[in-house]
Amino acid sequence: MAWTWQFEDAESRAVDGPNEAFSSQSDAESWLGQSWRELVAKGATTAILAEDERTEYKMSLLPAAGG
């Protein structure tokens, strides 16, 4: 089982990001925690975590409004 990230911009268009595969969900999430600022700088606003072909979840990379 491989865990990977895909990235989208505000219009749900694909954004190129590192094409890394992780052996666990935890490793993938740790990597995103360290890399999200660089991804936002490249135009990504959403990260999608997938296990093989199944989408686990989709999340915003932008800070919460009003915080």
Explain the overall architecture.
By secondary structure, the protein is of the alpha+beta class. Helices cover 25% and strands 34% of the residues.
Helix and strand arrangement:
Layout: E1 3-8, E2 14-15, E3 21-22, H1 25-41, E4 46-51, E5 54-60
Antiparallel strand pairs: 1-2, 1-3, 1-4, 4-5
Region (Disordered): 1-27
End-to-end gap: 36 Å
Quaternary form: single chain
Order of helices and strands: EEEHEE
Beta-strand fraction estimate: 25-35%
Biggest sheet details: 5 strands, antiparallel
Region (Disordered): 1-27
Outline of the structure:
The protein is an alpha+beta fold and 67 residues long. It is 25% helix and 34% strand. The termini are far apart.
Feature tags:
five-stranded antiparallel beta sheet, 67 residues, alpha+beta, 5 strands, globular, single chain
